[in-house]
Amino acid sequence: MMRQAACRCGELKIRCEGDPVRVSVCHCLECQRRTGSAFGVQARFATADVTIEGDFSIYERTSDRGRWARYRFCPKCGSTVAYENEDASGLIAVPVGAFADPNFPLPQSSGYERRRHRWVSIVGGHIDHLQS
Ligand SMILES: [Zn+2]
Ligand SMILES: [Zn+2]
After folding, report:
1. From ligand 1's centre to the CA of 6, what distance in Å?
2. Ligand 1 geometric centre to CA of 55 (Å)
3. Is residue 70 within 8 Å of 87, Cβ to Cβ?
4. pLDDT digits (tens, 9 = 90+) for 1-24
5. pLDDT at 124 over 80
6. What is the rounded distance in angstroms from the CA atom of residue 4 to the CA atom of residue 48?
7. Nearest ligand atom owner, CA of 40
8. How far apart are CA 3 and CA 17, in angstroms?
9. Distance 38 CA to ligand 2 centre (A)
10. 104: closest CA among 94, 114, 117, 112?
């Protein structure tokens, strides 16, 4: 199965082959700032199963643990459509919202729950609730 994700303006597209390796929610403050929402949710695919089409800019930062993370975003509309980090080599994360598909596979884990907004509850399938 091929899924396509895109930025808001549609000029930066990502094609992902097969089902995601994992889908996770993250409540960390960095994900809150990146998305402008209360939490982030991303699907990770093997790098070889992902094709990126269109121009992108890169933002790089260092995580709490001192590892690099690199985000690709559309230079025109600003949507982040893919990111990679040193702790998950060989995988590319795509924000689930970029697929604009309410039937997208459910998350299996919920990270940084100590940063979770009090009104947020992640339900659906089996979820591993992680404090970091
Ligand atoms: Zn765009
Ligand atoms: Zn996060």
Report:
1. 8
2. 9
3. no
4. 999 999 999 999 999 999 999 999
5. no
6. 15
7. 2
8. 6
9. 11
10. 94
**pTM for the predicted model, two decimal places:** 0.94
Task: Report the relative pairing of strands 109-111 and 128-129 from DSSP bridges.
Answer: parallel
The token pair at 73 is 């975003």
d(CA 97, CA 94) in angstroms, rounded, equals 9
d(Cα 77, Cα 79) in Å, to the nearest integer? Answer: 6
Ligand nearest to the backbone CA of 8: 1
**Sheet arrangement for strand 22-26:** 57-62, 68-73, 80-85, 91-95, 40-46, 22-26, 109-111, 128-129
Task: Give ion ligand 2 contacts, CB < 5 A.
Answer: 26, 28, 31
Return the half-sphere exposure (C-beta side, CA atoms, 13 A cut-off) of residue 68.
7
Contact 79, 36 (CB under 8 A): no
Residue 112 CA from chain centroid, whole number: 14
Give the distance (Å) from ligand 1 centre to CA of residue 98. 11
Contact 37, 28 (CB under 8 A): no
Confidence of residue 110 (pLDDT cuts 50, 70, 90): very high
